[in-house]
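Minutes, project check-in
Item: structure for the 204-residue chain
Input as provided by the requester:
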Amino acid sequence: KGYKVNEIDRDNQNELESFVRASDAVWIVTMPIEEVGERMLECSEIMRPGSYLIHGCSIENPYPRDIDYDRIEKLSVHWAHVHFHFRPQVPLSRTILGQTVTASICSYGVLLEGWLQDLFSESKCNLLVLTRGEHDELTGVSQLIHMISTFLVADVWKEFPSGQTLMKGLALGGPPAQMLIRAVLRTAGASGVVEGILRNHPYT
C-alpha cells in the first residue's frame, strides 16, 4: 500500500522518539504486557494530532496501571486495540488472507475515517469491531479453549512410547491435529505471555 515502515526494538530503541514524531501511525505489536499502557501514553504525548496509535498486545487492562485512553483522546490521537486471530499459512505472506481481525475499544476517529478497514481490504479480512466487554468475553472463550486443551493433550502425549508415534498421528490427523499441536506449543512455549493473558482478562 506504499507505507514506509520503521521497526523499533531493543537494538534501536534510542530512535523511538524521532520515529514516533514523524509517523502517521504507531503500531505496538509485542512487548511485556505490563509495559503497554506506559509505552502507549509515552508515544501519544509526542505523536502528531490526527495520527493513529494501535496496540495488539492481547491485553485490555495492563498492570500495574490501565491504559489512559481519555488522556490519549485529549491529545487528538486516534487509537484502537487490534488483535489478529489466524492460523499460519504457507507462504507466511498469506497468513492474514481471509482471517478474522478484531478491533476493540476504538476511538471514534479510527472508525470514522475508515483507516483500519482500508488497511485490511486487500487481504479480505473479516474485521469485527467489538466493545470492551465483548472483547473480554470472547477472549475468555478463545484463549481458554486452547490453554485448557494444552494441559489435557500434553498429559496424554507424555505417555506415548516415542516421538514417532506423535508425528505419525499428526500426519494422519491433518490440519485439525496440526492446529492443535500449534496451540499446545504456543501455550507451553510462552508461559509468561499466558500468565499475562490470564491475569489481565477478567473472564479468564
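Outcome recorded: Strands lie at 25-28, 52-55, 78-85, 100-104, 126-130.
No further action items on this chain.
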